Amino acid sequence: MHTFFQQLINGLSLGSIYALLALGYMIVYGISKLLNFAHGDVYMLGAYWGYYTINYLHFGFLAALITAMLACGLAGVIIEAVAYRPLRNAPRVAALITAIGVSYFLENGMSYLVTSDTRNFPQVIKRKTFDLGGVSISNIQLIIFATTIVLMAALVYIINHTKTGRAMRSVSTDYDAASLMGININHAVSITFALGSALAGAAGVLIGMYYNSIDPLMGMTPGIKAFVAAVLGGIGSIPGAAVGGFLIGLLETAVQALGFSAFRDAAVYIVLIVILLVLPGGLFGKKQVEKV
Amino acid sequence: MNFKKFFGVAAATMMSAAALTGCATAKTSSNSGNKATDNKIRIGVNLELSGSVASYGQQEKKGVTLAAQQINKKGVKIGGKTYKVKLYISDNKSSTSTAASVAAQLANSDKIVAEVGPAATAYATASISNLTKAGVPLVSPSATAAEFTQTKSGQTQKYVFRSCFIDPFQGKKAADFMYNTLKKRKVAIVADNSTDYGTGLTKSFTTEFKKLGGKIVTTQYFQSGDKDFNSTLTTVKGKNPDAVYLPGYYTELGLVLKQAREMGIKVPFVGGDGMGSPKLAQIAGNKNATNVYYTTHFSTKSTDPAVTKFMKVYKAKYHEDPAVFSSLAYDAVYMIVKAAQNEGEVSSSAVQKGLANLKNFKGVTGSITMDSKHNPQKSVVVEQMTNGKIAKAYTVK
Predict the structure, then answer these.
(1) pLDDT for the residue numbered A290
(2) Which of B231, B258, B279 sits opposite A256 (nearest CB)?
(3) ipTM of this predicted structure
(4) Could you say which residues form the signal peptide (chain B) (predicted)?
(5) Which of B87, B102, B172, B199 has the CB geometry, 3.0–4.6 Å to B208, for a possible disulfide?
(6) Chain B nearest C-alpha distance from A228 (Å)
């Protein structure tokens, strides 16, 4: 029983990282219908931002987290303006391929600038472990949970209760109609990229703290898994992306706990295939009818 | 060994090398090898002195140069005549095609009796065909891939030797060390199954440990690049092992150590030479890199008189401690000279025969006996880490 709860905690802390990434994926897809494959690499940028600001500018955890979110938000806006905006009216596959290009650019650009060595992340918060009747949980895991929940709540508030959020929602429903209503589309898309990338930046700093190891290719696998989480939860649904993230984290943990550690990644991709076949809209997704 | 990872890229260049070696061998006429007509033992040195794995080649060059200098102080008596070593050092630029053409050049123009190098399996393999055509044996100090000394059909390459042990050999010795020295009976394995290195070590360890009478309580796998091991380690912890065996590389194993120690797994961790990097302790945190052991080729903590003497002369010449690669290259030169001495003749064919029959050769990296596949059967060194520092070394015979 102890083992079960311990694995549950392992799964939830892994899942909250996927959830943060999946949320970013989802809102960007929602507004621009673009699978931003560079999302995982923005997360890597966030981790490196944390590494440099903590090591060289002696930032605390909170300062590093917030500045990483700002820096990654800015990076997201620049990526959108330079790479995706010129292609907004191009066929969707062109934008998709560009996203893959941006992903490679960021990975290899960082490998060139900072070398592909694995680095150890500075431990700004001293690790403490709490023992709850045989189940141990660390303060870093608690910080990850708390940060994830706070950021999710903030995102929901922005999207549902602010003017900007309303603009974002209307753009995601219908580009042309929104623009006829006087909404600045470029502005709304930029803000969406900024928000999504800021979440990825936060996830990068958190993961650096948690695993103490960062490298330029760290964004690849989590990026793809977050995409699976977004599809599982239902693209276009905020609670869906969050739940999808947690479910993928738990699934990975469960597969390992059952002794199939070699099949961990395979299990996640099988879920993607099954969901696409059986429930293409995802768990919380709206059923959409493609109009011809 | 660590540099296997580099060779995904190298494999692609191999293709083009195959085409290029054609012209490089054009001059080769005989298969009878070279024979010394004066009092010089000509040894070709084909190493990666520049390019992607230059650090290995540079270290080996130091070992080779030192060995020649030591031998030439007094010279060596072979068949009633005193010989001196003459080195022909060439850079293969960490390129398969250059490694092949350098080998042809050394064998045909410089008339070497044997070659030392290249350091990495991919480049060493590329130089085999030209040397075989010329009938000149080579000793690679650090080509650790098991298939290096064999042809595709599994026969032993007549002219190919090495001074290092092969990767899976470490697994066998680690089992021996855990059972006999640490006295552990219940072992869990957490292995990298995305590299030949990890799977090879796992297989040889499992076979040997069971043969000795130990029990493997669980075998868990991970992929290179993984970062989260909490769930795997929770399973391992639940099985209550006496010790954990970790075949893989330091990038992931550093994280495994960190997460395991933080979870309260206090038992000893044992790995292969893929763990032997200062980065391990950096990633794991010094506090967590305690009670950690790994098998390796050579340790500066060794108390063997041959090793301490080697370290003294090495330090006097280069003002630094010898690295694993330098010591293996140092042994490679001595092995060639010893082979010629045993056969009483300085020629390629005598060195080939002498190397194939080498028995109980006392080198600085252990006592070497060549098996029928030209793989040295030798002692393995185990280094023990305490607080991120190498505290002690054991020798597993």
Answers:
(1) 56
(2) B231
(3) 0.72
(4) 1-26
(5) B172
(6) 18
